Amino acid sequence: MQDADGSPRLSLRALRYFVAVAETGSVTSGAQLVRVSQPSVSAAIARLEADLKVQLFIRHHAKGLSLTLSGDRLLVQARGLLAHARELEQFAGAMGGAERGEVNAACFITLAPFLLPGLLSAFAARYPEISLSIEEGNQAEVLERLRSGRCEIALTYAYGLSDEFEIELLAELPPRVILAQGHPLARRRKVSLRELAGAPMILLDLPHTRDYFLSLFRSVRIEPRIAHRTRSYEMVRGLAARGLGFGILNAIPRLPWTYDGNKVVAVPIAEELPNILVVCLRLKKLVARPAVTAFAGFAKQHFAEVWPKLMQTPPKERSKGRRARLAAR
């Protein structure tokens, strides 16, 4: 179906069927998800491809469907459009009432335990009519969810970003060395990375995260001796507390105790190294819905008020205009 100017007129029903098939990988499963007959879903997908004059799926014999590049691009926009439609329906049903809608967000996995419990509780109290769902993931997973439209906003670190994202700075966190309380360097005011050359390192081994930590050593022309790799933030602290090596982390909780009752110390690094930036991300090409805008503003305020109470404050250091460089990206 087309408008008078020849442009395709897309129905929300067809887009819902398309998203269901794309997410499940088959017409049969997609039809079950939307509770519509398989022939109806197949016909709607065929009409959608005909109207758009593109192939949206590659059909694999006995192996379901996979998206073409055009289908992948449509999926991102379709998810956003359907979310807008649901919000509009809720608004129309409650004219003059409180903010309504839904927000699908993502959060970097090591930030989540610090930030999400209080944020979810406070947001629900302030916006009871907005349904908030947050998925945790590493940086690669968070960015993929944004690009695919599975979420519309993310609270994460500024790893591996491009100009496709709208970036709002929330905080700057300097790297610090994590040591057992009884380590010979634990009482030092600062520790040089060169003093750690040859010492066993416990690496937080997540996509993009590992690159950042290793880049700190490469900036001073040192290759660290990695003794342990872990995907767990608390494992870094726990292993360091047992004297099995040193770690490097940026988010440092006020309480120094590990899960098994030992104590770690966070020591500033002598070299001037890049801080990690905590940011709020959105895709520029997607128009932010009112519910998403409400969440973004609330999260920024909550972060500013709560984060300093949770974190062990590092000594003051020179910023060298990092905020300006971030704004210029």
CATH homologous superfamily grouping of the largest domain:
Periplasmic binding protein-like II
Structural class: alpha/beta
Portion in strands: 15-25%
In the CATH hierarchy, the architecture of the largest domain is: 3-Layer(aba) Sandwich
Shape, per Cα inertia axes: elongated
Predict the CATH topology of the largest domain: D-Maltodextrin-Binding Protein, domain 2
Average pLDDT for all residues? 87
- Which stretches are poorly predicted, pLDDT < 50 over at least 5 residues? 93-98, 317-321
Number of strands: 12
Task: Give, in spatial order, the strands making up the sheet with the most strands.
Answer: 4-3-5-12-6
* H and E string: HHHEEHEHEHEEEEHEHEEEHH
Look at the structure and give the CATH class of the largest domain: Alpha Beta
Q: N-to-C terminal Cα separation, in Å?
A: 41 Å
- Output the radius of gyration: 24 Å
Number of separate structural domains: 3
Question: What percent of residues adopt helix (DSSP H or I)?
Answer: 40-55%
Report what the structure shows.
By secondary structure, the protein is α/β, with parallel strands linked by helices. The protein has three domains: 12-77, Winged helix-like DNA-binding domain superfamily/Winged helix DNA-binding domain (Arc Repressor Mutant, subunit A); 98-171 and 276-327, D-Maltodextrin-Binding Protein, domain 2, CATH 3.40.190; 175-268, Periplasmic binding protein-like II (D-Maltodextrin-Binding Protein, domain 2, 3-Layer(aba) Sandwich), CATH 3.40.190. It has ten helices and twelve strands. A five-stranded mixed beta sheet has the order 4-3-5-12-6. The chain has a five-stranded mixed beta sheet with strand order 9-8-10-7-11, sandwiched between helices. Strands 1-2 form a two-stranded antiparallel ribbon. Strand 3 (101-108), helix 5 (112-126) and strand 4 form a beta-alpha-beta unit. The radius of gyration is 24 Å and the shape is elongated. It starts with 11 loop residues before the first helix and ends with a helix. Residues 93-98 and 317-321 have low confidence and may be disordered.
